[in-house]
């Protein structure tokens, strides 16, 4: 990651020798990001929470600080994230969030300038993790959160390349030039990368091909075998207008998933 961006990142991200609990989300980007963080920290940061944007589950009470992984918490919670979460530059935001869009001042007002790649690539870049050695490993990395997509749209190609350069991964442009979008969508299907992580009888499950991905991505990929217990349910919503949002103090996470759509989760008062 270029120094001008890394210097703006919240300092907690350097606390890799202090124990933290990771909050896992429900997709491949969050899972692989959690796996990488546990690998980088030698197990000092471990998955202890699971958040599927409707319910939060906990493995065990620890009293340790927590870190959200690939989720747009709007309160003062440590988190790695890649979403656009501000309407404009006057909007309040989570100062503990390590998010390239916050670092670059991207809001709904300049949405087309956004970082439109994975949280996994963000974390790799911040911790200077080298790209996978194999071509397939690099291609799988570009499949996570459809990180390849912006390259193939004339409107977004330049900003997509700028972000790869800021991350220190400009060599991925050559990989993108050798393929087409359908190639990557076929990889996503083959490795079940769009499948969800979910809870059943207290256990985490997924159909994502974790073993196959582990052979190519450059670090071990797995799903914890721990038992998770329900802590609290939330209400998950989406709408096309900023009008009639719940009170900010009730909102747990919020992201502008397009210029005309907001996805959010809030604490139910019923």
From TrEMBL:
<protein>
    <submittedName>
        <fullName>Uncharacterized protein</fullName>
    </submittedName>
</protein>
